[in-house]
Structures are given as C-alpha cells and as structure tokens.
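Dear colleague,

Following up on Tuesday's group meeting, I ran the structure prediction for the two-component complex that the binding team flagged. I've pasted the input sequences exactly as they went in, so you can double-check that nothing got truncated or mislabelled along the way. The structure tokens for the whole assembly follow below. Feel free to forward this to whoever is handling the docking comparison.

Inputs:
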Amino acid sequence: MSSQPAKTQLFLPPTLVNVGWRYLLRHGWQTLLMILGITLGVAVVVSVDMANASASRAFDLSTETVAGRTTHQIVGGPTGLDEAVYTDLRRSGLLDATAPVIATYVSSPQLGDAPLELLGLDPFAEAPFRSYLGADGAIPIDQLTAFYTQPGALLLSLDLSERYGLDLGDEIDLSISGQTQTAFVAGLLDPEDELSKRALNGLLIADVSTAQELTGKLGTLDRIDLILPDGVEDQLLSELDTFLPDGALVLPVGARTGTVEQMTSAFRTNLTALSLLALVVGLFLIYNTMTFSVVQRRPMFGTLRSLGVTRREVFLMVQTEALAIGVIGAGLGVGLGIALGQGAVRLVSQTINDLFFILTVEGVAIPTDSLIKGALLGVVATVIAAAFPAWEAASVPPRAALTRSSIEQKASRAVLWAALAGLMLIASGTVALFYPTNNLILSFGATFFITIGFALLTPITTSVLMRMIAYLTGGIWGALGRMAPREVVNSISRTSVAVAALMIAVSVTIGVGLMVGSFRFTVVTWMEQILTGDVYISVPGTGVSEPTKRIDPEAVTIMENWPGVQHADLLRAVAVDSPDGPINIAANNNPSDGEEQLYFAATGTPKEVWDAVKAGAVVISEPLANRLNFTLEDESISLFTDTGPREFEVAAIYYDYSSTQGTVIMWLDNYRQIWNDESITAVALRLEPGQDVDAVTQELSAALTPIQELLVQPNLALRTQTLEVFDRTFAITSALQLLTMTVAFVGVLSAMLSLQLEKQRQLGILKAIGLTARQLWSLILLETGLMGSVAGLLAWPTGYGLAIILIYIINRRSFGWTLQLQLVPEPFIQALIVAVFAALLAGLYPAYRISRRVAADAIRFD
Amino acid sequence: MGILEKNSTNTSDNIMPNNDDFFTFENLHKSYTEGERSRTVLQGAEASFAQGEFAAILGKSGSGKSTILNLISGIDTLDQGRIVLEDQELTAMDERQRTLFRRKHIGFVFQFFNLLPTLSVIENVVLPLELNGTSRKVAAQQAQGLLEAVGLPDRAATYPDRLSGGEQQRVAIARALVNDPLLVLADEPTGNLDVETGEQVLELLDSLTRQAGKNLIMVTHSRSNAAVADRVLRLLDGKLVDEDLP
C-alpha cells in the first residue's frame, strides 16, 4: 500500500459532474426557475446598458459627425456671429482651416416630423473638416451643382430618403421656429462606412447661404469651425483673442459636448442601479433554490463524503451546477435583453429628449461590451450567490445523519446573527449616505447595503410575527391555522429567503412609488406657484425643456395689444456659454416673478431679491447651484457676454424642476442690453378679470397663425402637457419595477414549490389521516399567504426608508432637485396586496400538484 | 481487470489472519453533547486485527457500534485514543488527509445502501475509482468485473430506484470493493433487507472480501449475522470484549 494519501484532481471526475447535472435535470422545474431568474435579471441589465450605450453612442455620433475634425469653434452670443468675422478671418490668413456653420433643429412632415439637424456648410471650406461633401464620387456632379446654385437645395442620406420615399427633386416642408419653409432634395449622400451612414440619418445639409435663408439668420453664423494645428495652438489662440471682436469666443470642441454628455450621466446611473436591482432579486432566487437543493441532497453529500469526496470537490460540484445555470441563464438573458433593449432605447431616448437635449437615436446599437458585461455579471453573480449553499454542502459531515430539525435548529441560531449583520449593514449604509459627496456609486452602494440589511432582518421578524399570528389563525382555522405559521417558522432557512426576496421587490415599488408620487406632487405645487399667467405662447418645440425658438416680433406686438390682456410677460430663453459650459438663461419682464418663485436660499425677501435682479443681479436654479457647487457665499457667477466674460451677482437660489441643467433668471431689459438681443421665445399673458381664457386662446391662435405657427395654450393645458412629459419620463422606471417584481415572483414560486414538494411526505400523511383536498389547498395557501403578508408588511419600513433616500439623497445628488415627501397610504396598501397576491399565486401550483398526488405516493416519495 | 482477479493470485490461501497488528485501535474515547448533557459512547475501547480478518461487532441500539465505524473511517473524530491501519495513524491526520485516506483505502457498505440516485449502477461503482484518478475506461472495466462478481452484470445501465433492496446492497458491495481497499466497513448491511436476501447479501460480502483478502469490520445487532465472522466483539459499556458464539 502507498503510505501517501491520494491526491485530489484539478478537475472533477466526470461521474461526479454527472451527479450534479442529473440532479438539475431531474428537478427540471427548479432548474428552469433558477435559469428564468438569472435570464430576467441579465436581460434587464443588458437592455438598460444597451439603451444607455445607444443614447451615448448616438450623441457621440452626432457630435462627431457635425464636428468632424474640428478642434475649436468660434461662437458668438445668442444672436450668433456676424458673418463678417468669418470673411475677415479668411482674409487675415491667420488660419488655414476655417469653416462657417449654421446649425439648427428642424422637422418636416415628409420626414416623419422627427427632429433633424439642419447643417449649413460652405462646400469650399469643408474639405479639411467633414468628408461627406468632399469625398470623390460621393455625389454626382449634377446634384452638386444643384446644391450650390439653387435656393432651398438640401442633401440628405440615401437611407433617410428611402425610408420616407423621397426622390431627387422632391419638395420638403421644413418647420423652422414655427415658420414653414420649402426646400427640396438636391442630392443623396451614401457614405460607405456604417457609422457615417447612421450619423447622417439625423442630418440635413444645406449650403451655408441656403441655410441662412431658410432659418432667417441672414448675415450671421452660428459658429466658425477651426482646426488649430498641434504645437502652435496656444500661439494661435492668443492671436485669435486679439483678432476677434468682443463677444466672439474660441472654445475647444470637447468643452461644449462634454458638459452636455455629463448632464445625462446621472440619469443613466440611476437606470443602471435600478436594473442591477432586478439582478440582486434574481440572486436571492438563486441563493434560495441552491440552498434548497443542497438541503434536499444532504444525505447524498454525506454519502459522497463517506466515499472520500473532499470538501473542495463537493464545493466545486455545487459551484459547477451554479456555473451551468449561470451560463445558460446569462446566455438567454443576453438574447432577451437585446429584444427588450429595443423598447428601452425608445424610452431612454424619449426621456433624454424630454429632459436634456434633442437626440436622434438611429437604430439600436448592440454593443458587444454590454452583452459581455451582462453575461459575465449574470454568471459571476450566480456563482457568488451559490457560494454559500456550496459551502454549506461542503460542510455536510460524511454521515448523512443530520436531520431536518437539526438543520433548522442551526438556522434558527443563524437568525440572530443575520439580524445583527443586518443592523450593522443598515448602520454602515446610513453612515455612508451621510458622507457629503455627490458620488452616485457610493450613494447607491450605501442604499444597497441598507436594503440588504433590511433583508437580513427578515428571518427574525418572520419568526416573531408568525409566532404571534399563530394565535389568531389558530383561533380562526383551528389546528390547520396553527400549523401554517409553524410550518413557516420550522422551515425558516428557506421561507425567510423567499420572504426577503419578495420584500425587497415590493419595498422598491413602495420606495419608487413614493418618490415618483412626491416628485409629481412637488412639480404640481411648484407649477401652481409659478404658472400664474392665463395663456402661454411659444414656438412648437422639439422636446427641449425651455422654449428657445424665437417668436416673430410682429406676433409679440399682437399679443401685447390683444384686447383683454392686462400684461404680457415676455421671456427670452437661450443658452449662453460660460466657463462651466453652456448655461440656460431665462430673461423675463414679469414684474412679480420675484414673488412667484420659491427660494432655496436668498439674500433677502422675495421683493428685495427681485429688485436686485432688476438692478443687474441674477437668480439661479437649485440644479445649477448643485451642478456648480454654488452657494450664496460664492456671490457671483461668470457668463460670456457680447463684451467678454462678466460676473453676475447671485441674489437667490430658487427651486426649479423644469430642467436638470439649471437656469439663470435675469431681468429682460438687462439681458437685451448686455447681449444686444431683442428676441422673445415665450409669452405669458395675464388677462383682465372676467376674460374667457379659452376664447382668448382660440381667437389669438387664429390671429397669429398667418404670421407664425405658434403653440397657444391655456394655463391648464400647459400643466397637463408638463405632467404628460413627467409621466413619460418615468415610463422606463415603471417598466424596470415590473420586471423586478416578475423576478421576485419567480423567486417566491420557486421557494413555494421547493418547500411544498419537500413536505410531500408530511402532506401525504395528512391526506392519509383524512385531510380533504380543500383543506390541503387551504393549508398551503394559508402558509404562502402568510409569507406574502409578512413580506408586504416588512416592505413598509424598507420602502419608506428607500423613499427617503431616493427623495432626499439620490435625487438631489443626481439631478439637484429637492423634493417634498408626500406620504400617502396608496403605495403601502398596493405593496401589501401585490405581495400577498404574488405569494398566493405562487402557492397555487404546488397546492394543485400535491392535492392531485395519491397519498401513498407522497408518503413513498421520501 | 477486476480487483478480485487482481488479488486472487496472492490471496487464494488468505482465509486466515497472518498479521495480528495489521489494524489496531487503542483506548478509544468518544462522547457527544446533547443539549447541555454529555453522553459517553466509548470509554477505552481497544482491539487489534490481523490482515484479512473478518470481525463482527455486536451491540444494542445506541451502544456506539456505528460510532466505532465512523471513527475508524475518519468520518468522526476521537476525544482520545489511537487508530492505526497498516502503520498509518489515522488519528494523526487532518480532515483532508483522512478524506483522501478513506477515498483510497476504505470501502463502505451502509444499512440504507446510500447509492447515488442520479447515477446509474455502473457509475455508482465507477465513482470511487474516478475520484482516485483512474481513467474512465479502465474504471468502467473494473466496475463491470465487480458487477459480474455480485451477480448484476446486466444491470449496469439501470438506475438505483429500479433495483430491489438486495440488488442495491450488492451494488453497494461492488462499490465498496472496487477501489481495492485495505478495509471494508459494513454498518448493519442486512438491516434493511428480508431474512433470505440478507443472508445472500452477507454471504456475498463475506466471500468477496475474503476472496480479495480484505479486512471486514461489520457492526450488527444480529447474532446470526455475527456468526459468519472470524471473530466477534461485543460493545459493552463503551468497551469491546471478545465474545464466543455457540
């Protein structure tokens, strides 16, 4: 005999692997539910990641296509740049590569009314910047000639023309700032590479003079693109600084696009966190089912250990099973994620259009890294979730002697430790949340800690509640009523995990429901405070939160002099550049605006604030203050004006929920004086008492239509529209919540099936001694119903805690909004109903299966 | 080639013991804590066995018979004492070493068969060989040889739940011997079988282990079963005493 003990092998022997996978095959329903949990979790993560990536890529694509090889841009104020700046620059010979650009958003009924960017370019200056006009053979010469020479000539991509059935020469009605202009298809671009093709699908290209005519920007440019060669950049910038007139600024391309990209990052992080939650709930499912499978197989592990299988091999065996489930679940999840991704992309891009900026997402990108990331996350998460059950399996003594009751005795001791660990997690999560930072990853990490902490309190709370409730159910249903809660406690190692998974999913619905409800309530209250006009007029927009398109001055005059109008509040909304990127300005002449705003912080009374604004100060919105880390102690903010950078004293910070970018409010006369811009982009009319708002709206609309297509709507319609946008914004949140609930339901179903099937012998005995099928149904449904009730009840404090965190911490750190908590009973009651209903539903199949089983079979099963 | 064939050449006359200290245990003590009480099962149990010896341990229910087997196999740990099998001190090994030792040198036959339900008959027998790194092909050949020896050559592909109790125990015997162990431990191997089947199984266990020259330690509460052994020990008050059966 060898004196050395045998060595273990690196890989598991095939027969040992067979032991594992055949178990999975024999318990098909259990395996399928585990796979389903991972599939759904991974699908949600992949779809959200795809949506985020598609939106991000669409943004990059549009900025890259439009910017081309541009390194810097010369920009003017809100009225643009005088085109003489460009001609002077060309003549000066200071730079070789300069190109004039007109860029504005338009829409057309012939092009599906979707927002498209009209780009006015000079073909002769374009070659160094963008390739699609200069590539050899890209456009036939006759089309190019028409493009250069004919008014209204446009180039568009072949894809776009085919999609909308447009041919060369076809007329297109362009809606530009409420005015309809006629253009025509002069040429079709068909770049070879897929990226350019996709980018061009969001563009219409015109000669710069054509674009000036179409947009009414005669004699001005939106910007001049530059290529500053490396090495001499600083020198050229300094020469340009001397050369350019006041108000013209040279900015690096990234400075503008980077800020805009940053705005959506919090939104995307929030979605990612919510999607990860579905995966976390899926993990509970895996943990629960694997634990069950381990407990069920304890005698088998005992035998294996007696045969000389090491702990490591048992651990690996269970982990290999988990790996197989993880791989299959993640594979299917990626497939389902791609399918769900189509919808998610639509919802995400809609929200970005509503809240941030116009974004044309052309096609859904299926980024390989999203798929790999999702799949890996699913597999790794499954293996991690199975680690504890695998360790449990490896710890089975090689005697197969431990009884169920001793396992549950062990579990009941663990209940206390779990509760202690839960309290510690909650405490550490709370401490982390109070740490002053805007880091969202840390905030969400702390939130997860708190949520998991509450989940760890589930076993102890379930035990206590069940013991208490046994008196009540026993009084009502007698012996069966006493049995059901005891069964929950007797199987606490499994029931508590199922209850915890359901509790988390339901608490998220409470938390998110309260947050959305409070948000809506805050917005409604805020609108009531600030929307004091009777009729609102603006140019039909393309989804941006502030109206930035100009109203024809003739139309403004008509509004101001309309019979019954007491006062016309004029608004100029525009984005101006600043050292911190573009900032929205809302300049108005509402004499009482100062009193109508709600202030987060102010240097004086509302009247004093507004007097200061009239004297040249500004007030800034809370999201802007948060974005710039601004407090009133900072005193002023800097904006680029027509006469160079200028400091504006900040008199107050006001609550604002109209945009996440933030806004600066100033007095209209001051704005006009500083930026030399007389444009108006929105008007609020205050009518004399007794005027019929609807009649004025209708008549005014009819009178204005011949001049400009304008959106004339009464106060109520504007509020309704705002709330519609609001609800649309949360559509994806609701979809994710629903998916998380589905995963939780699968978890509870799996746990119920496991528990009830495990108890087949006991239930068989009950049948044998005379329990009717109906009583059997009652027993099982009472047990599952009790578990659902506990999950629903425990979800109340957890959900409330989540709501507080979402409202006061996550939202503020993500978007800069302070919301008012509106505590209403509906989300709590709904959550309880959903939890009980889901648990009862999950109990139906096990009850059906067991009630149909012959008692003798059930007894023999063990 | 099967283990029986492999060993038959040098063990054809190996019916009787040839080395009294092949396997010994000395001064075994073991107690269990049940709640706040401590229950002593073994109090200085001692015995030594010659190579190839078949010993039966008799005792009442709860007397500690199975505990002795658990201690010998390294499944459980001693409070005090020493177990030595062919110069290897099991009690000096750590948990992992004991597991690997058990894998290679000890075969188990349980009262409740403990076949793995998800493996076919032949896979159940192959498993110990594969754990020791034997190639699947060689392992299957050896397992098939043992299945023939236990009279189940045509049930190789069958799953345990399709077998009778007696057949399941035959498979368990094949599994216990397939690895050419030094020692076979049998815990009430006929306890779950009817009398006639029990006798057949016991006869098979006896003949195969003797034929292979293996030591067999069997715990039982049946005097008639114990009578088959070369030597009978009784577990009395935590100690082992030799017993002469009529």
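The domain at 3-13+51-74+94-243 of chain B is CATH 3.40.50.300 (Rossmann fold).

Cheers,
M.
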